[in-house]
Design a protein that fits this description.
single chain; alpha/beta; Aspartate Aminotransferase, domain 1; 8-stranded mixed sheet; 12 helices; 15 strands; about 15% strand; globular
Length: about 400
């Protein structure tokens, strides 16, 4: 007699809040309710387009039949362009560069090559849920550190210090941060560099939004601050160049070669085993990084207006506060209430059709409640969504006054 196929235990705790909430949203959409989606960070779903020269260069590569396998670490033209980009960011002592299927694959490979059973990496909370999903898959020990909402969502250095133990292998930074939109200061980054050097940690620097900055702010790559610190800087085309579907990312390995050599070889063993990243799309890397950047000016003009509208309207709702984002296209407002944020969001979607993601899906300080909004949609959609959130918040508090987390 056939019995049920039991999945691997390592999948039990894999969640991905950004996509998981879509299951409920799809159910609500089937009822005919108008839906307002503020949950997915995909610029192409809204009024953003990639640079024309990026698309044309990729298309030309396809027409030339450059559609077979690429070298495992990426085509030379792309790797060389990424190296020049690293130089512009001030990153020296680079020992390896590899092109991957989105920055997500680079992160997955680098964690897989580093962490053994029972070991841990410091993950930001709130932070992008990809990291906790990979941690669950690898059966790593969870070791979250908190960002300080009262200090512009910067990493809490004292909390990081308290979380480092003899099984800690790395610290993950997302700068600019997803989901908060925070941009880290030089002082804060220097403190993290000092801790990494003291405890021989690898820094995973997720800088996928490093060109999407508000108010004339400047991004500092943490790898540029010390040539000896072991660091992998992750980037890609998806956000800065508006092609998330191309699935093109990369990692830049820098630090002291004698310390990193075995780790670099372990990463390359995995890269070779999975063959290569998308081939023709790699021909868009050089022209993206070194070509005309006017699309960024246009994008940031739109995003600044939408960021300001987001902060103004959400902070005007009694019981909701929102720290002003300095990068990316996310905000992470706090819900000042006793009820669970996941319950609030599910009821919000069912009642209003406004789709946002509960803060519990990104991690947060215990006892606090948040939700993430993506302010990529146009002003009319955002205004309608935020008004609906404000009106619903009052009704929700009355209806579920006895519901306490």
């Amino acid at each position: 007699m056939l019995s049920k196929i039991r999945p691997a235990i390592r999948t039990d705790n894999i969640t991905y809040a950004v996509r998981d909430i879509v299951v409920l949203a799809n159910q609500v959409a089937k009822t005919g309710k108008e839906m307002l989606y503020l949950n997915i960070g995909d610029p192409n779903l809204y009024d953003f387009e990639p640079p024309r020269h990026l698309v044309e260069e990729t298309y030309k590569a396809m027409l030339k039949n450059l559609n077979g396998y690429a070298p495992s670490s990426g085509i030379k033209e792309a790797v060389d362009a990424i190296e020049r980009e690293a130089e512009r960011k001030g990153i020296t002592n680079v020992h390896d560069i590899f092109v991957t299927t989105g920055a997500s694959e680079a992160i997955d490979i680098c964690l897989t090559a580093l962490v053994n059973d029972g070991e841990n990496v410091l993950t930001p909370s709130p932070g992008y849920p990809l990291y906790t999903a990979i941690a669950s898959k690898l059966q790593m020990m969870e070791n979250p550190y908190y960002l300080d909402e009262n200090n512009g969502w910067l990493p809490d250095i004292e909390d990081i210090k308290s979380k480092i133990n003899d099984k800690t292998k790395a610290i993950i930074l997302i700068n600019p941060n997803n989901p908060t939109g925070s941009l880290y200061t030089q002082e804060n980054l220097q403190q993290i560099v000092d801790l990494a050097l003291e405890h021989n940690l690898v820094i995973f620097a997720d800088e996928i939004y490093d060109k999407l900055l508000f108010d004339g702010k400047k991004h500092i790559s943490i790898a540029s601050m010390n040539k000896d610190v072991s660091c992998i800087t992750f980037g890609g085309l998806s956000k800065n160049y508006m092609v998330p579907g191309f699935r093109i990312g990369w990692g830049i390995m820098s630090g002291r070669k004698e310390i990193l050599s075995e780790y670099i070889e372990a990463i390359n063993r995995i890269l070779r085993a999975r063959l290569s990243a998308n081939h023709p799309e790699q021909y868009g890397i050089k022209i993206s990084l070194e070509g005309n950047q006017d699309h960024l000016t246009e994008a940031m003009n739109k995003l600044t207006t939408r960021r300001d509208l987001t902060v103004e309207m959400l902070n005007a709702i009694p019981g909701i506060t929102c720290v002003k984002p300095e990068g990316a296209f996310y905000a992470f407002p706090q819900l000042h209430m006793k009820q669970p944020d996941a319950h609030f969001i599910s009821e919000l979607i069912k009642e209003t059709g406004v789709v946002v993601v509960p803060g519990s899906g990104f991690g947060q300080v215990p006892g606090t409640k948040h939700f993430r909004v993506v302010f990529l949609p146009n002003e009319q959609i955002l205004e309608k969504a935020y008004k609906s959130i404000g009106d619903f918040f009052v009704k929700y508090q009355e209806k579920f006054a006895d519901l306490v987390e």
